[in-house]
């Protein structure tokens, strides 16, 4: 690589393996409970342990799960929603799944946990619990049951204080977001059937718990072709997020997740509860995220019928407030919440987990319309090295590129090489690292990421592509990839690279591409279909679509029916799209990085293709699953990848 350190610059960039192995923490799932603010905190310095942490009304911080607990669940592999909390007088009760011990547990004020529900049952049955919701002592959640023969099924259950379990709903392939109404009479939940995913077709259901047990579908459902998710209550009014087109939508309406509302009533001649659709104006941005994990919260009700939402506009997070009299407007300017902010007891201030592009994640408190300098940083996930200055951090620039077919424009986040005193300087145009996000139903994030800054602090530009199929741009943009995975995503990544080359932003002779999981398939396909890239890295990536359809876990078992073609009827399409079918087309060097405990994309996928590519290498990380979690592994994988590209650039590998 042609680079040189300018006068006065350090010999090492500020993003070092040592910094990455300092065990930087991460935050998720913020809640407001009885005047407290609670969140889940992952601690790599404690072997990746997840803890529920609370900020008391007096401002002090407390661990609310005991040291021996590991809060988490592997339901759907990706987990989420593994805890719920409620104040009982002076005590804070936390009920949680434990990913190490299994089962459900409860702890008061972080003291020793007591078992609530077992991890195993008779005849080798295994139970998993997720999407916990606790209201007035009543716990509801999703339960997954796996038999000794490997058969899996799900239901919704209610669990009392003695651990007695009552099944409330069963029969659907999948459930999510069980939420009790404030008076306890109704249970709202989301359900869907194979071959759909939660972002393709789901239904919003309400069950009457008062005795009749009647269950109604209020929105979406089988054959409706829309995704409804994230139900929440405001008194007797039920809200959810739906990407169905409003009844009065004009031709060309851009369908996207936006709040909808329903209110209960009674039929004139009976006691049957009916539900009235309460029209709301669509939000001016997509309010929702693909439900890869449980426990996400993107919208909440405030007093007076107001709504607060965490949304995405053109791939960039925004916070929106809906006032019944005046409609939607932007609030929290400059803040980047991960979830919807939660109101504090005074009604004026809010707390949120902030993930900006230029600072570490932090718990923040402030008012919706207050100035940025008036916001209080309560707790940081980690600290930047003290010598780092603003110029050392590369910031995202949103770029768009015209497309000839289908919805557009194509969007990407572009990062120029950082120019600070603790970064490598580049002589001439910089090399380019193209990032292909996973999913493929996902999106390029804009928060400060070591996985971006590692490259930009070393003289690389980075292009993080929101190829069509990504979320945050509406349903049409997301659905454009249906039946075209391995084709349209490759086309879009190549188009974005051509765009930055045409703008003169990067060196066209030093473009490389990297992708994880589904993004790995895009990487390998791009190397086979284009000469834009001199090398590529597949991180736990897909190489054999037929094998993936046969081997992957229950949640994604029919995912490929929509992305590729119906399985197994269209097996020929799976073979034609699989990199394993045409290794001779991949002539550029490839680095494969994979964990040997991957349940989503088995290690055998990477091994099978790597053996057929002379200019390739494979490194396996023992004990790692789908997505590297250990800080040492993340640091090592990036160091290997950097050395790989530098060898390619200097000709030490046969490109």
Automatic annotation (TrEMBL):
Domain Peptidase S9 prolyl oligopeptidase catalytic: 448-650
Chain segments annotated as coiled-coil in the UniProt record: none
Pfam family, one: Peptidase_S9
Identification of the protein by name: Prolyl oligopeptidase family serine peptidase
Organism (species): Bombella dulcis
Biological classification of the source: Bacteria, Pseudomonadati, Pseudomonadota, Alphaproteobacteria, Acetobacterales
């Amino acid at each position: 690589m042609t680079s040189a350190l300018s006068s006065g610059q350090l010999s090492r960039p500020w993003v070092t393996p040592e910094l990455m192995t300092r065990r930087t923490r991460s935050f998720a799932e913020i809640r407001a409970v009885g005047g407290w603010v609670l969140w889940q905190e992952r601690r790599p310095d404690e072997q990746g342990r997840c803890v529920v942490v609370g900020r008391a009304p007096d401002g002090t911080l407390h661990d609310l799960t005991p040291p021996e607990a590991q809060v988490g669940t592997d339901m759907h592999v990706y987990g989420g929603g593994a805890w719920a909390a409620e104040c009982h007088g002076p005590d804070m009760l936390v009920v949680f799944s434990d990913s190490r011990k299994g089962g459900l547990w409860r702890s008061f004020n972080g003291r020793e946990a007591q078992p609530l529900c077992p991890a195993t049952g008779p005849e080798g049955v295994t139970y998993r619990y997720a999407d916990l919701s606790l209201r007035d002592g009543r716990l509801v959640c999703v339960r997954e049951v796996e038999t000794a023969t490997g058969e899996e099924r799900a239901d919704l259950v209610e669990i009392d204080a003695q651990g007695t379990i009552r099944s409330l709903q069963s029969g659907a392939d999948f459930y999510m977001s069980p939420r009790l109404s404030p008076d306890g009479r109704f249970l709202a939940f989301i359900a869907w059937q194979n071959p759909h995913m939660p972002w393709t077709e789901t239904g919003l259901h309400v069950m009457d718990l008062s005795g009749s047990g009647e269950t109604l579908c209020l929105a979406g459902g089988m054959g409706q072709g829309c995704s409804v998710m994230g139900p929440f209550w405001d008194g007797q009014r039920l809200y959810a997020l739906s990407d169905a087109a409003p009844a009065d939508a004009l031709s060309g309406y851009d369908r996207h997740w936006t709040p909808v509302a329903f209110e209960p009533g009674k039929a004139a001649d009976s006691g049957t509860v009916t539900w009235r659709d309460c029209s709301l104006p669509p939000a001016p941005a997509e309010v929702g995220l693909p439900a890869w994990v449980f426990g996400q919260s993107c919208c909440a009700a405030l007093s007076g019928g107001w709504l607060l939402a965490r949304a995405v506009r053109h791939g960039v997070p925004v916070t929106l407030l809906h006032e019944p009299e005046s409609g939607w407007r932007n609030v929290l300017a400059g803040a980047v919440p991960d979830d919807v902010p939660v109101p504090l007891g005074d009604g004026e201030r809010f707390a949120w987990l902030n993930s900006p592009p230029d600072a570490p994640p932090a718990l923040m408190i402030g008012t919706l319309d207050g100035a940025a300098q008036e916001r209080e940083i309560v707790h940081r996930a980690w600290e930047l090295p003290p010598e780092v200055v603003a110029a050392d951090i590369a910031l995202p620039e949103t770029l768009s590129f015209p497309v000839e077919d289908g919805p557009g424009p194509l969007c990407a986040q572009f990062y120029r090489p950082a120019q600070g005193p603790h970064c490598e300087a580049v002589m001439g145009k910089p090399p380019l690292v193209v990032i292909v996000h996973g999913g493929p139903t996902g999106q390029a994030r804009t928060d400060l990421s070591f996985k971006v800054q590692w490259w930009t602090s070393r003289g690389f530009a980075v292009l993080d592509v929101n190829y069509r199929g990504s979320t945050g741009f509406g349903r049409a943009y997301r659905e454009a990839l249906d039946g075209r995975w391995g084709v349209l995503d490759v086309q879009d990544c190549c188009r974005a690279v051509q765009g930055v080359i045409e703008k003169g932003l990067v060196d066209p002779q030093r473009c490389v591409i990297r992708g994880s999981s589904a993004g790995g398939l895009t990487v390998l396909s791009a190397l086979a279909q284009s000469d834009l890239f001199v090398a590529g890295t597949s991180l736990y990536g897909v190489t054999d679509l037929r094998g993936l359809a046969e081997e992957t876990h229950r949640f994604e078992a029919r995912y490929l029916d929509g992305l590729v073609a119906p399985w197994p009827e269209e097996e020929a399409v799976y073979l034609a799209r699989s990199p394993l079918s045409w290794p001779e087309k991949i002539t550029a060097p490839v680095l494969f990085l994979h964990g040997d405990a991957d349940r989503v994309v088995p290690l055998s996928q990477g091994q099978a293709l790597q053996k057929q590519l002379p200019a390739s290498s494979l490194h396996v990380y023992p004990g790692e699953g789908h997505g590297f979690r250990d800080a040492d592994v993340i640091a090592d994988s990036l160091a290997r990848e950097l050395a790989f590209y530098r060898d390619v650039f200097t000709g030490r590998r046969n490109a």
